[in-house]
Amino acid sequence: MPPDERRAAILLAVRPVLLERGAAVTSRELAEAAGVAEGTLFRVFTDKVTLIREAVLAAIDPADSVPEVLTIDRTLPLREKLSTLMRQAHSHVGESMRWMGLLHEVGRLEPAGPSAEHREAAIRQWGRRQQAGTAAVTAAVAELLEPDAALLRLPVTDVIELFNTVLIGATMRTVDAARRGLDAGPPDHEQLIDLILHGVLAPTPTDRSA
């Protein structure tokens, strides 16, 4: 297997054990998850911390969700499209937040010095990939909502920003509750869609008669 392919395969294979064990994962567990010997693992990666960091950065790519967005039928009613999109996006954002938490853990383990320069370079490269991935997701969602543009009070791009704000806020609430040992339960996706489409004001008598 070419070096780049082997590297990518290892980064993908260790994801489940990283989500389960976090920064406490051992080199042996990583090697077993990747199906290679520890010596092989560290001929590809400098050390355990580098491997974990690169695996996390590889796992958080917004563009991974584009194929799923494209499976949503553009002819569905607007509410149904938004509800499906919300369920998909909540799953992706929740997992991304778990990865980001692990990235912070790893950051505390990395020593200062020359390796810090490589770490910063990797973060910058990841940032560029994030920007491109986010743009790809936005384009896919815009294509999904475009048939309903005439029904919307705001431009499609503004609706997407509002959707993202509600999505991230709801996800952060769930993640924060779990961090404090509380069970907030999953967000009510239909309630979130109601908020996006209708706000929080009760219908006026004029609205009811329309």
Automatic annotation (TrEMBL):
Keyword Transport: no
Pfam family, one: TetR_N
Keyword terms, alphabetized: DNA-binding, Transcription, Transcription regulation
MF terms in GO: DNA-binding transcription factor activity; transcription cis-regulatory region binding
Residue ranges of DNA binding: 26-45
Keyword Transcription regulation attached: yes
Name of the protein in its database record: TetR/AcrR family transcriptional regulator
Source species of the chain: Cellulomonas humilata
